[in-house]
Amino acid sequence: MSYQVIARKYRPQVFEEVVGQKLVTETLANAIRTNRVAHGYIFSGARGVGKTTTARILAKALNCAQGPTVAPCGKCPSCTEIAAGNSVDVLEIDAASNRGIDEIRGLRESVRYLPARDRYRVFIIDEVHMLTTEAFNALLKTLEEPPPRSLFILATTEAHKLPATIQSRCQHFAFRLLDYQELVAQLGKVARAEGLETSEGALGVLAQAAEGSLRDALSLLDQAIAACGTKLDEALVRQMLGAVPAVMLAGMMEAVAAGDAARVLELISKLAQEGYELTHFLGEFTRFVRNLMVAKTAGAASSLLQVPNEERQELARFAELASEEDLTRYLAILLRTESDLRYALEPRFHLELGMLKLVHARRLASVESLLAELSASGGAKKSADLPAQAALGGPGETRSALPASAREGPPPSREPKIRQLTGQPTDAASAPPAALSANPPAPSDERLAAIKARLFGQSKLLGSCLEPLVAWRFENGAARFLYAKKDAWAVELLTSHERLATLESVCAQEFGQPMKVCVTLQDQEAESSARRPDARERALRDKMVEAFTKTFDAALAEVEDLSQE
Ligand SMILES: Nc1ncnc2c1ncn2[C@@H]1O[C@H](COP(=O)(O)OP(=O)(O)O)[C@@H](O)[C@H]1O
Ligand SMILES: [Mg+2]
Ligand SMILES: [Zn+2]
User: Fold this and answer.
1) Which CATH superfamily is domain 6-174 in?
2) Structure pTM?
């Protein structure tokens, strides 16, 4: 394959090129210089922050023909083979797919041999927390008596799942998430090397969506190039991610601050007409308001704000539109609306309701202060309000985040008023749609749209991964999502454990039953696509069969496949 995905093409080859993990790389470089490399390391941290990269650099540093050296040459056979991932002395094992005792036994066997050519045998075990208990025990034995000239690097996204016995045998390095500036800087570097025409705004959108993972940032850049060519402007990139244009967010904030309910509804209608995911919009608006709150409390120059510099002035300006108390109240309402929206059958109504609550939030404040005055003048029985409040506040309710300024009186009196002002459909509709569980899974465009919307609600990165989907279907009880080769980035993004788990849980919610999901490239599964879904499965999905099994409480005994004749 001639095209190499950007994340792989720009994998750092020496310690200095690793971004944002100085603590780790400097300590390792020091250990090499002073000849104090340990036998076991744990590299923990989120996906795509440099664990495998650093492990390979360490292996090269130890095994380079000119080494051990902190600056491996990159040219000798050891270096080139390690970089390509096919060195005989540096073995990479994916514990997620080789979880069992046999693999670890095999590994223990092979540990007994000295390196074939190089100084060290290095074992890089990825997702090590997935190993079975027996496998862990076998690994522990090896770590307890490490054979000479062997090195174990255990990489994991979930270090807390490693047994204490393993942890105590290893040096532990925690890899941090990269911050916004680091992501933008690295994206900029790669963009220049690739000869792209782009702006900080465009890269900023990618950086925000990557949520701290450099691999994700680079995969998104790949996606952006596939969608937009070599000219990446902010609007296009936003569109690609399904992100709402900044002016929409600003316009909405202005309407809310001006108390203009009609304008708010107009804007929502516009969003819906232009085909934006409303859950997605709400997520972005929430982030926007959160940024305003940070700008208000910590100042627009604060590093707590993960935004491009050019946006900071804007934020400062908008922060003037509302008081800190207003903003906290907005945020509380928005978070609540987000959780309502997640299961809503009519997201638009919920969004409208939520946004109108914002418009009225100021008016509520005065009702509150009125009540405070009332209660100050004696008599109001606050405790009687409490049950009503409990009924209103779901788990998503963040009442403590609401300002409790003395002027406003005790908070318990507030919630029932919100309820009166806004009506109460939220409670009924926020329950997950139970009726779905009766349907057997079948792929349809509506289903896909619903799944997409749910995913967007959780993360726009995830949601955007479904955009280039070529086809999906059910096979052997699992949903299979297929992508074209050029969209390998989406497969790459979706096949991480956490993301796959999210996708599975979203599908499970949608279909009301547990779901397995697998995500593959189209030609990878060419052989299996030739096979039609199993006759039994097709029969189970048949409406008539379903009606029979239900009505007569029957089970399917035998299926004869006549379709091949
Ligand atoms: N800290 C980093 N500095 C530079 N590039 C990075 C960093 N982290 C990730 N990358 C990029 O992402 C890709 C995948 O990183 P990798 O080290 O495999 O992540 P993981 O932490 O999941 O093992 C690399 O090929 C590289 O392009
Ligand atoms: Mg890795
Ligand atoms: Zn070398």
Assistant:
1) P-loop containing nucleotide triphosphate hydrolases (3.40.50.300)
2) 0.66
